[in-house]
Amino acid sequence: MSETETERVRKQRVAAELREPVREANALARRLGLDPYPVNYWIIDYDDMNELIAYDGFQERYPHWRWGMKYDQQQKQRQFLGGKAFEIVNNDNPAHAFLQVSNTTADQKAVITHVEAHSDFFRHNQWFGLFAETPDAARMLAGHASLIESYMSDPEVDREDVEAFIDHVLCLEDCIDQHEPYGPARADDREAFEGDDIAARLDELGLSDEVKRQVFSDEWLDDQREDADRAQFPAEPELDVLAFLRNHGKRYDPEAGKAVDFEDWQREVIDVLRREAYYFAPQKMTKVMNEGWAAYWESMMMGEERFAGPNEFVDYADHQSMVLGSPGFNPYKLGKELWEYIENTTNRREVAECLLRVRGITWRNFHDRVDMDDVLAALEPAPSIATVTEGSLADLDPEDSRVDAEGLAAARAGEVDLERYPWKVLSYEGLCERHYSLVKRQHRGFLKRLTQNELERIARYMFDDERYESVEESLAAVDRCRGWDRMREIRESHNDVTFLDEFLTQEFVEENHYFTYEYTHTTRDYRATSTAVEDVKKKLMLRFTNFGKPTVVVEDGNYNNRNELLLAHQYNGVMLDVKQAEQVLERVFELWGRPVNLKTIVKELDDHDVEVARRRDREPVPEERGKLIRFDGDDFAVRDLPWDDVEHLAATDVDYDTKPEEWLA
């Protein structure tokens, strides 16, 4: 038997072994309140996994050197750094998930439960809904691959020109308006505007300055170039830089010495890459939420519902520690901790509201009248719900909302393996009680941290505050599903920035030991600088605002009435790397065909001020200045700008600018 046949047989064997876990993981996910897309699972080998990771989870992508670079990076990470690829799943309907054949059964089950949660997130998060063309992303990307391959194979088009043009566009792939629904780039009335631009038409004639001075007076030429009443184009700063360049850009023709229209294939390439940028944008915008969501439900299913069998649990614990314990910024860990915090705070508020409705209990006497240990004992799940065995089936009532009547009947008939799948006899409400967060050992102190201030805030907006006669009566009314219900509500509407902005609190920062660190000129090294939630939140949100990239907009497509492009950096307290900015401007020039300008704000420190501050054991305060970087196709020029010209770009604090206008209405 050949090696290929051996490998094929091995994959088939693994696929057969995973049919039951796939079926049961989906059923458990749905019982827990998730609603995933259908998922197709594929068994692949190590090299295939590296290729899929390089291709962002799809089997076909357009030809380009970037995929080879990512493939090589993934191989080296595994070879030299010990990184392990457990899975990859794409956003599609049906979703497609790829499992590595060499992984252990525990790894495969962990991946399957993780994927089911991802697929639920893809289906219900509204930011994914902004890309109206999904589902069927695999077909879309395969079509893009075929289209670009056809251009590279065209004898009238140089393959290297196509690849270089792709490089230019990819440099701007995140310069889109990710908060708006995707739509094809459409031309506007710029053509009519250009018809009235006499100065631009003179430039396109290629006349020398000497000839122009002989025919036209300097005063007349200056009037054309500095017309203060001309309409600005675009009327408002344009976030979708790719769409603007697609509609109004040109290519520089060195033989003609001027800008000429794009070839048809060039506009098509911009369309393709822009469409892909919009498709992948939601994944970049929800990395913490999405990975945290999947890690939370994976842990729930594998650990707390014992989807990992007794002989698999140690392997699963090792798997989970690798994922959650990886060094550096870890979106899995942050996301899972924040989802748990939301669950706990929601459940705590629900309990507090019920207790504050007991006759005679107010926020002022709450801690004197309520024994939290007794409250926690009352909130423990019923024994028949907490531990489902053959012996406890008689204690379950099919009419109880916590019990699944069909599952109970099947279990009593011996058709359910209760040791492996005890959840089959419980309803969603039963599972909510079984896994109620506040009574878990790791969270038992959470309810006791209710402060007088929080109780006052809750009571301030409460009416009907004498509903119950006793603490016991109020606790019987606690909705144990409230935490999970709230998590699903949040999962539908937020992205990472709004998620962190709304739910990161000082309590969370202290409980999970988050802090900020900065390079300090006083000590000439990095130091922990703050544990205040405002500082931690600012640091984290800057990482995710505009995918962690600078926000650059088109401010003027006819700068100085010369048909030059003016880009503006919306400064949020973090300055650009000027050298990198210049490299990007070189790429933008290839998409505009005429000089390009970038307006930004930089921080400048005087060496003398740094030394004085160091001697006084304090940090120097940099001065912010406006700068204009211009590239004419050959040379760069950098000049200072008056503060009035850049003041509108400066944020008063940190301007995250992440919510669509209708959210603020």
UniProtKB/TrEMBL annotation:
It comes from the Archaea. Residues 550-601 form the SpoVR-like C-terminal domain. It holds the Pfam family SpoVR_C. InterPro entries: Spore_V_R, SpoVR-like_C, SpoVR_N. Residues 16-349, 482-547 form the SpoVR protein-like N-terminal domain. PANTHER family: STAGE V SPORULATION PROTEIN R. This is SpoVR family protein. It comes from Halomarina ordinaria. The lineage of its organism: Archaea, Methanobacteriati, Methanobacteriota, Stenosarchaea group, Halobacteria.
